[in-house]
User: What shape does this take?
Amino acid sequence: MANTMARSFLQAVSSSEEVAPPLRVVQMEGLAVLKIIKHCNEFSPALVTGQLLGLDVGSVLEVTNCFPFPIREEDEEIEADGANYQLEMMRCLREVNVDNNTIGWYQSTLLGSFQTVELIETFMNYQENIRRCVCIIYDPSRSSQGALALKALKLTDSFMDLHRKNNFTGEKLREKKLSWVDIFEEIPIKISNPALISAFMTELEPESPVAQCDYDRLKLSTAPYMERNLEFLIDCMEDLSSEQNKFQYYYRSLSRQQAQQQAWLQKRRVENMARKAAGEEPLPEEDPSNSIFKPIPEPSHLDSYLITNQISNYCNQINGVAGQNFSRLYIMKALHEN
Assistant: This one.
């Protein structure tokens, strides 16, 4: 009886380890959020990155601390120094009893232009050593418009399976039913603080509310922000047009090759009929050494998917800013009429 109970217990433990619950929320401490914002704002518009530390608890990924990566150039010796810096930081944090489990990284971005092949490669490198990891994206330029542009991203499981096989052909994408919106998955962020910090912040609050006149909210022009978004959107449209030209050239080459194959096969069949009439052995209807039978490699759809994702992101940002501007204009119109 005891052996049966022990065996069932071990089976339950092993099954729970194999099947992990899906990630539902990323819980970030206020200190980690402030560190990320401070680091990104100090070096803006330059792009910076850093390490996320915390715990993986069930369906919640807790971000309790972080530290920045040094800004370095592309050099092997400097890259080795950067790796040593990370290990030394982890050792120091462990000595002072701070969470030193790596659960991902954070990075800054400019107007939401983060959906790149480099981001996917970084995800795959982290995924080799960490079961679940996220990337925290912070946009200082968008945050300056009055909204905290902070989001947590992870790659979808179906996309990671395709990326491991490095097969982004149209047939595989249709088989997996993978579209451009299925690359990244945004995880909700919940900001929390320890009880002592919450009590201290309550003590700092003034007894009577302070009336502040924020005249910046009455600005009706967001021309620089809109102009940059439109410039980036135009660049993405040009990149997407280049990708479409690649696929058009591929399909033209494919149809040309198929026509050449049909002509060659027709000629070979006529020749075989003549050989049969002469009592000779027919020749094979396929010649692997012939260049027209070599398959033409299909271009990868990954770049076009990422560009389409980026275009959607720029359109959403333009739509949000334009909606706010229209609201301000209608308010000002009503004030002038009154």
